[in-house]
Amino acid sequence: MDRFWKKLSADPRAEQCGWCKDRYGVSWQVVPQILDKLLSSKDKAAAARVTQAFLKIKKFDIQALKRAHAGR
Fold it and tell me: Which pLDDT score, from 0 to 100, does residue 2 have?
């Protein structure tokens, strides 16, 4: 994930919720594979915590998402 982010992100002002903008102005969302699993959890409160966590960040932080899912 970090490799793609480094290559694609050219405008820090455009970074939010995993979205970045490249040097040509094209927007990309770089999403970790585990996000779908965390959001589709049977524990709806855990999924909601994950959503709230990623709304506050620029580049996805997998460990932070796992902590939010676990309620930490």
Answer: 86
Task: Copy the structure tokens of residue 41.
Answer: 């959890």
Q: Nearest to residue 27, comparing CAs of 43, 41, 10? A: 10
12: buried, middle or exposed (CB in 10 Å: 19+, 13-18, 0-12)? exposed
- 3.40.50.2000, 3.10.180.10, 3.30.465.10, 3.90.1150.10: which CATH number matches 2-70? 3.10.180.10
Residues 35-61 as b/e (b if ≥16 CB within 10 A, e otherwise) read: beebeeeeeeebbebbeebbeeebbbe
What integer is the mean pLDDT of 28-42? 93
